[in-house]
Model the fold of this input.
Amino acid sequence: MTQGRSLDELVANLKKAIQLHLEGEEPGVFGLTRSPRIALTYEEHLSGDDEA
Done:
């Protein structure tokens, strides 16, 4: 799990977390390609406040 203050930061942090997790591993063992795709959900409050 990771987080970021912006979508760009979130994606960068997510990529780094996955790279660290798979470091030294063969992606094919996990059913992954050498360059897997990442799908994520991002929510942001449009009103400008952080309350739901």
Observations:
- The radius of gyration is 15 Å.
- The chain has one helix and no strands.
- Residues 27 and 34 are 6 Å apart (CA to CA).
